[in-house]
Amino acid sequence: MKYCPQCKADMINREMDGVSRLACQSQNCDYVYWQNPTPVVAGIVEIEGKIVMAHNVAWPKEYFSVITGFLEQGEDPAEAMVRETKEELNLSVISQSLVGAYGFEQMNQVIIAYHLIAEGDIILNEELDAYKLIEKKDIVPWDMGTGLALKDFLANVSS
């Protein structure tokens, strides 16, 4: 960001509470670009006892993950995950529970993760081109983002 969206003055780096922040250089403007994380929902979607892992068309071919999506303005996170499950997989959610919230610094996101039990026939939307149904015991979580949610979910399933 080169110019202030409020007054059009140049933006500069300014030290604030020990952190360098992009801020308006004008003395008459108090705009600061906080670069707050984007809220994202993630769904560990279960159908017939297995977890759906999907492949996004933009990813390397070996990457599969849980279902994710961005929150719409004014949308409840739980409702957003039900919407994403229907949009991306064509599945209807029959029950849902919160797994947790996770920082994903690499993408500047906060992930709100749910476990969803769903029913129906999987039909992928244009964002996805493949899926796998995986036994819970065969899932190996990764060490960031949605992998942390999977790790917590699996720990609670086995306990």
Mean pLDDT: 95
Largest beta-sheet characterization: 6 strands, mixed
The end-to-end distance, rounded to whole angstroms, is 48 Å
Please provide the ordered H/E string of secondary-structure elements. EEEEEEHEEEH
Total number of strands: 9
Name the CATH superfamily assignment of the largest domain.
Nucleoside Triphosphate Pyrophosphohydrolase
Runs with pLDDT <50, length 5+? none
Structural class: alpha+beta
Under CATH, the topology of the largest domain can be stated as Nucleoside Triphosphate Pyrophosphohydrolase
Beta-strand content? 35-45%
Portion of residues in helices? Answer: 10-25%
Question: TL;DR of this structure?
Answer:
This protein is of the alpha+beta class and 159 residues long. Helices cover 16% and strands 42% of the residues. The protein folds into 2 domains: 1-35; 38-158, Alpha-Beta Complex (Nucleoside Triphosphate Pyrophosphohydrolase).
Question: What can you see in these coordinates?
Answer:
The chain is of the alpha+beta class. The chain has two domains: 1-35; 38-158, Nucleoside Triphosphate Pyrophosphohydrolase. 16% of the residues lie in helices and 42% in strands. The chain has two helices and nine strands; from the N terminus they run ββββββαβββα. The chain has helices at 77-89, 146-158, and strands at 11-16, 19-24, 32-33, 38-47, 50-56, 67-70, 92-104, 109-119, 128-134. The strands form two sheets. Strands 4, 5, 6, 7, 8 and 9 form a six-stranded mixed beta sheet that branches. Strand 4 (38-47) and strand 5 form a beta hairpin. The N and C termini lie far apart (48 Å). The mean pLDDT is 95.
